[in-house]
Amino acid sequence: MKLIENGKRLDGRGLDELRPIRIEVGIISEADGSAYVEWGGNKILCGVYGPRECIPRHEANPYSAIIRVRYMMAPFASYEEHGRMGPTRRSIELSKVIRNVFENLIVKERFPNTQIDIYLDVLQAEGGTRTASITAAAAALINAGIPMRDVVAGIAVGKADGHIIVDLGKEEDNFGESDMPLAISRKDKKLYLIQMDGLLTKEEIKEALEKAEKAVESIHAKQLEALERYYKEEKREFKW
Amino acid sequence: MRKFVFPGDKISDRVLKIPYVYSDGKASYAEAIGILDSQGRYVPLESPYLPQVGDQIVGIITGVKPIGYKVDINTAGAGFLHSRETRMRFHLGDFIVAVVKMVDEAGNVDLKEARRLPRGKVIDFPSSKIPRLIGRHSSMINLIKKYAGEDIVIGKNGYIWIGERANIPLFISVAKFVEVHAPQEGLTDKVANMLSKMKRE
């Protein structure tokens, strides 16, 4: 199967082109913060609760808040191994890597003995759910007013048919040569997540990181625009 | 010029020690979404309540123990009211108004000067917008009380008690208006307009 032909990808995108992204903020009235992200065929709902009392008590940290992330794919989200409920090897791993991103970003010392819960539900999946989840969770945390040092967004880069490509879809992820999901912050351009599947040479990684840094700016802009739109709007849902 | 700031945006070239701001030793950066006004003041739009000593708060009794009471004060951990701080006896579910006596590093909050509030309703208003609801020299709350009744107690923690004699639906609609328009200037005049229009109808 050919993934790239005449500089166009399977879904007609160019090599550096992102899928269409839509972000909504504050759509769950009972949550402290929430966000909904549509990223190509991915549909992700995120709710943030807290800081609230840590349960069980013995896990509480008297010096900082603890952060819990629960990533879950709905049974109808996709096919193959995704079509089942409950914690799987994959969802436990993703919860852990997403938690690591936000443990380094949230100012945890502000809320000792508390927990902050981030619930991520993937309603529909089309490759790149972890990067889309990080993008959604960052917007939801800002909506909840949880202090963070920076805004973060996820972006995947990789290689298919010998070309470095940005924002991999499902086919490129499964049948391409390499996939590298990243989480990049806005102010410092720091990497908060880097994983890699497949093989890339040193030069290819350098090129991929440069492309990712450029592409992530438009995602940050979409996050901020969604938040600004929510706080400017006059007819919004109230928490009481 | 008012503009939105997001986590990581620079808000000052000096080191500031105010809530929801962090610094790297040279400049100060925002930690939460907020508004930077023309004088360069940063006001967070959304922020969990951080108790300060001396704050007047509204709470709900959630636990009765021999040495005191556990009080829900809209923070992660419950507040604590020691029996020696009050002569009154409270029951589960009572609404109280109290003052923050002490806050420690572990997030424990001790209360004092507690007083029971009669039957009524407690609503949860965003604590970051409470200053707008009170207004400069209490101008906003005095205006609202003129129309909705005197039985209103505002806690700094975001809980607001409304007594049965006050006009609860009117107060809630005004509070919603204030919540939505909190970032705008000249809010008291707008609320006055709205209230007089409501009265005519």
Descriptors for this entry?
heterodimer, A: alpha+beta, Ribosomal Protein S5, domain 2, 5-stranded mixed sheet, 12 strands, 31% strand, B: 201 residues, alpha+beta, OB fold (Dihydrolipoamide Acetyltransferase, E2P), Ribosomal Protein S8, Chain: A, domain 1, 5-stranded mixed β-barrel, 4 helices, 34% strand
Which two chains form the greatest contact, residue counts included?
A-B, 38 and 33 residues
Number of domains of chain B: 3
What is the spatial order of strands in the main beta sheet of chain B?
A: 7-8-9-11-10
What is the name of the CATH class of chain A? Alpha Beta
CATH superfamily descriptor of the largest domain in chain B = K Homology domain, type 1
The largest beta-sheet of chain A arranges its strands as: 3-4-5-7-6
Question: In percent terms, what proportion of residues of chain B is strand?
Answer: 25-35%
Instruction: Write down the overall mean pLDDT of chain A.
Output: 91
Oligomer: heterodimer
CATH architecture of chain A: 2-Layer Sandwich
Instruction: Please give the CATH class of the largest domain in chain B.
Output: Alpha Beta
Largest beta sheet of chain B, briefly? 5 strands, mixed, barrel
How far apart, in Å, are the first and last alpha carbons of chain A? Answer: 54 Å
CATH topology of chain A: the name is Ribosomal Protein S5, domain 2
For the terminal residues of chain B, how far apart are their CA atoms? 36 Å
- The number of helical runs of chain A is 4
Mean pLDDT of chain B: 88
What is the radius of gyration of chain A? 18 Å
Please, could you describe this protein's structure?
The complex is a heterodimer of chains A (240) and B (201). With 240 residues, chain A is of the alpha+beta class. Chain A has one domain (15-230): Ribosomal Protein S5, domain 2. Chain A is 28% helix and 31% strand. Chain A has four helices and twelve strands, in the order ββββββαβαββαβββα. Chain A has helices at residues 89-103, 129-144, 170-175, 202-232; strands at residues 4-5, 8-9, 21-25, 33-39, 42-53, 66-73, 114-124, 152-160, 163-166, 178-185, 191-194, 197-198. In chain A, strands 3-4-5-7-6 form a five-stranded mixed β-sheet. In chain A, strands 8, 9, 10, 11 and 12 form a five-stranded antiparallel β-sheet that branches. In chain A, strands 1-2 form a two-stranded antiparallel sheet. In chain A, a hairpin with a 2-residue loop joins strand 4 (33-39) and strand 5. The mean pLDDT of chain A is 91. With 201 residues, chain B is of the alpha+beta class. Chain B has three domains: 3-44; 56-117, OB fold (Dihydrolipoamide Acetyltransferase, E2P) (Beta Barrel), CATH 2.40.50.140; 120-200, K Homology domain, type 1 (Ribosomal Protein S8, Chain: A, domain 1). In chain B, 21% of the residues lie in helices and 34% in strands. Chain B has helices at residues 130-134, 139-148, 168-181, 187-200, and strands at residues 3-5, 10-12, 21-23, 28-30, 34-36, 42-44, 56-65, 68-72, 79-82, 95-103, 109-117, 120-124, 152-154, 159-163. In chain B, the strands form four sheets. Chain B has a five-stranded mixed barrel with strand order 7-8-9-11-10. Chain B has a three-stranded antiparallel β-sheet with strand order 1-5-6, with no helix packed on it. The radius of gyration of chain B is 19 Å and the shape is flat. In chain B, 35% of the residues are buried. The mean pLDDT of chain B is 88. The chains are: A alpha+beta (240), B alpha+beta (201). The A-B interface holds A 32-33, 50-54, 62, 107, 110-114, 142-151, 185-188, 224, 227-228, 231, 234-236, 238-240 and B 4, 6-9, 20, 22, 29, 31-33, 44-48, 50, 76-78, 105-107, 123-126, 128, 176, 179-181, 183.
